[in-house]
Amino acid sequence: MSQNGKLVKDVEATTANKLLVICVDRDNDVGSKTGISTPVVGRDACIEAAQRLALEDPEDADSNSIFFAVKTYEDLVSKGYEAQVITVAGVENRGVQADEKVASEIKSVLAKFSANGAVIVSDGEDDEMVIPVIQNIIPIVSVQRVVMQVSRTIEHSYAVFGKFLKLVMYNPKYSKFFLGVPGILLLIGGIGAVTGYNAEIFAVLITILGGAFLIRAFDIDKAWSNWAKPTPEGFTRMFTLITGLILIAASVPAGIATVSSVQFSDNMGITDIITNEVVIGQFVSGMIPFLWIGIGTIFVGILFSNWLNRKLRHFSDILRVIVLVALYPTVHQFTNILMYGESSFSLLVPLIAGFGVTAASATLLIRRYRKKGSRELDQ
After folding, report:
1. Rounded to whole angstroms, how far apart are CA atoms 274 and 278?
2. What are the CA-CA distances from residue 340 to residues 46, 276, 289, 370, 378 (Å)?
3. At what angle do helices 62-78 and 43-56 cross, to 10 degrees?
4. Which site among 134, 179, 230, 317 is 20 to 30 Å from 309 CA-CA?
5. For position 86, what pLDDT does the model report?
């Protein structure tokens, strides 16, 4: 079935008669490449945005998506439906902020054009991830995906491969990993071959390669770049993160210093030491103050930086600090059980108290967040 036939079938299967055709650009290529502010409302405005995007980047598929949305709008109008076409965009990093921005732009359009059904136009699964968010705002009648027809010749394959090599060579985003890491490995391998320290160099190579894979797999480099942005909240996060990590590292020698030498004897091995309940209790007892302060410093830094960035509505930042404080008495009592042989039932009081504080705090924060959200909707 053609795209046009599918659209007609989807629309006729509903009672919607006032339709909003929405072209979704979740990573905001329209805004970042052309400088056009979204939402772009109307046929002529969307055509102009698509033309400017095609001129700035002819290989970007979003311009074709906008043209497709305009064609869909014209098809609906020709069949007698009252319709409007818009282009909405998220943010470059996608994620929750992109979905919130898309939802906000659609709401602003619906305030002026009260549609009772929506047709979504996208060029891939990434843009379609925002569909559940849109569904909460307006019923979705149909989803139209733009599929580009490309040549599958050998020449096209060579062109794509050449473009990939150029991207790897000259784009810093990719060259750091695809060229930087192999370059370091080859350099160290060459030094090892010359000096004869093959076994030691091999261990270093494996460590570097493993570290690079971990950094890329968990987006540690992106997380650090976000934390260390040259903004007030970025400097706050960086300072509290480094301070917290230092305190967490300091908790280990603090725990070792707390262990009494009386517990050791000449014939005790490592296994005997680490399985000794009193030793473990003393170590953890000396460790947890610095450990908790270090973790709390990081959490408070996140909370304060979000407050500076006016994101305090994410109540999980506050709840995270409350849970950390509520857990401390339970962990402290556990060390007393290990060191002094107290009854395990003594854990019940701090456990119940901690759960009560956490549950009460979560309830209050959720109610406050919902009230604030309802006030924003009313406005």
Report:
1. 10
2. 74, 13, 19, 46, 58
3. 160
4. 134
5. 93
66-84 per-position pLDDT tens digit: 999 999 899 888 888 889 9
Amino acid 162 reads G
Q: Do the beta carbons of residue 120 and residue 134 sit within 8 Å?
A: yes
Contact (Cβ atoms closer than 8 angstroms) between residue 117 and residue 139:
yes
Beta strands in the chain (DSSP E): 18-25, 40-41, 82-89, 117-122, 140-145
Which pLDDT score, from 0 to 100, does residue 231 have? 67
Q: Which amino acid, residue 189?
A: G
Residue ranges and CATH numbers for the domains of the chain are 3-145 (3.40.50), 154-218 (no CATH), 231-378 (no CATH)
d(CA 294, CA 88): 42
Mean pLDDT, rounded, of the chain: 79
Q: How far apart are CA 108 and CA 114, in angstroms?
A: 10
* Percent of the chain's residues with pLDDT above 70: 77
> Can you list the residues of the chain whose pLDDT is less than 50?
1, 151-152, 155, 376-377, 379
Instruction: Return the number of other C-beta atoms located less than 10 Å from residue 207's C-beta.
Output: 10
| Single-letter residue type at 369 | Y
- Per the CB < 8 A criterion, the answer to whether 16 and 116 are in contact is yes
Could you report the per-residue pLDDT of 251-266, keeping only the tens digit for each? 888 888 887 665 555 5
- What pairs with residue 23 in β-bridges? 87, 121
Q: Which amino acid is at 106?
A: I
Backbone angles phi, psi at 2, to 5 degrees: -70, 165
Residue 84: what pLDDT?
Answer: 92
Q: Which residue has the tokens 């700035």?
A: 56
Q: Cα–Cα distance between 362 and 323 in angstroms, integer?
A: 10
Edge-to-edge strand order for the sheet containing 140-145?
Answer: 40-41, 82-89, 18-25, 117-122, 140-145
- C-beta separation of 94 from 26 below 8 A: yes
Q: What is the 3-state secondary structure (H, E, C) of 131-168?
A: HHHHHCCCCEEEEEECCCCCCCCHHHHHHHHHHHHHHH
Dihedral angle, C-alpha 329, 334, 338, 344, nearest 10 °: 120
